[in-house]
User: Which sequence fits this backbone?
């Protein structure tokens, strides 16, 4: 295994490389994200020196899960997620435009015991603001990003060439969370979890999901009007409202959700429709996508709430609002299935 500094120096044809700071350690001890300063790169050019980010994943190191969910199944899922993220940056990220801003990938290196993902430092590219909670109007930039991203990759499940991302995006979908489902107390949500899952899986219109679209995974410009996304470990196929439901639940208070959900969904779907038409879809086709995903929003919400109830029922996201949305999701699939 080569050191991060040597890898960066080789990948960027740099004269020398300085480690500046550790930005974040990865979940359950799988590695860290580090900022480096690169001098006299033959790849990047100006400015010099240049800052880059290296996500360093150690495949041979794992600690105890902070909530006790440590199993071989969980470990293998996590390892595969880092491989998928490397695939995303290596093979897919360059397809995104400024409207779906992501970090430029400078290289990916793999060995039996490590993965390095070398990428642009978004802080240095003027996306330096991080948020934990948002005001309602501050959500719009992220909803625009999601709408553009979902429009760009609509129909991805119909590709005939090689597909090296998750066949199903998100980290909480039912087939990958059997332990959490078994841990749930008996309820209608647990009883009908398969119906909820099938309603989304059987949707006519699918796209690529970010898969972990919480507010912490978006980097904001200083005026909060532009965003870039990071952390693509669970990027894969699904319906756009899975990202939307997860994002809104991550950044707004229960009161703000209750009072502003209709406005926020209208904004997302308006931007989604505009993007689809701009990409060549007919207005009628765009409307069909909007109608299907709008109807499935409560189902997507119920699906994530099912995960929360099994994973950590005392979690702050287990709110009265969320429970009500989950009930609506169950009612939807029961009506649909007769």
Assistant:
């Amino acid at each position: 295994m080569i050191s991060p500094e040597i890898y960066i120096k080789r990948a960027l044809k740099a004269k020398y490389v300085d480690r500046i700071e550790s930005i974040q350690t990865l979940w359950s001890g799988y590695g860290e994200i580090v900022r480096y300063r690169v001098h006299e790169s033959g790849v990047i050019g100006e400015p010099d020196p240049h800052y880059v980010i290296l996500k360093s994943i150690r495949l041979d190191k794992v600690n105890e899960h902070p909530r006790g969910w440590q199993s071989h199944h969980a470990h293998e899922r996590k390892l595969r997620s880092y491989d998928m993220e490397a695939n995303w940056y290596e093979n897919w990220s360059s397809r995104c435009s400024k409207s779906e801003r992501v970090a430029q990938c400078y290289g990916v290196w793999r060995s039996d015991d490590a993965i390095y993902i070398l990428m642009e430092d978004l802080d240095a590219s003027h996306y330096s603001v991080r948020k934990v909670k948002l005001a309602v109007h501050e959500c719009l930039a992220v909803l625009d990003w999601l709408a553009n991203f979902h429009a760009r990759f609509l129909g991805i499940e119909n590709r005939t060439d090689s597909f090296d991302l998750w066949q199903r995006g998100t980290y909480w979908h039912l087939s990958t969370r059997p332990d959490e489902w078994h841990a749930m107390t008996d309820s209608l949500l647990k009883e009908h979890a398969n119906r909820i899952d099938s309603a989304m899986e059987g949707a006519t219109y699918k796209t690529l999901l970010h898969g972990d679209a919480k507010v912490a995974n978006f980097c904001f410009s200083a005026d909060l009007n532009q965003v870039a996304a990071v952390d693509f470990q669970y990027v894969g196929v699904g319906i756009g409202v899975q990202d939307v439901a997860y994002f809104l639940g991550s950044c707004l208070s229960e009161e703000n959700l209750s009072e502003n959900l209709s406005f926020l969904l209208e904004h997302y779907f308006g931007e989604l429709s505009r993007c689809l038409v701009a990409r060549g879809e007919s207005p009628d086709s765009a409307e069909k996508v909007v109608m299907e995903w709008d109807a499935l929003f409560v189902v997507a919400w119920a699906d994530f709430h099912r995960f929360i109830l099994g994973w950590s029922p005392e979690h702050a996201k287990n709110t009265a609002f969320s429970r009500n949305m989950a009930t609506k999701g169950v009612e939807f699939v029961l009506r649909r299935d007769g």
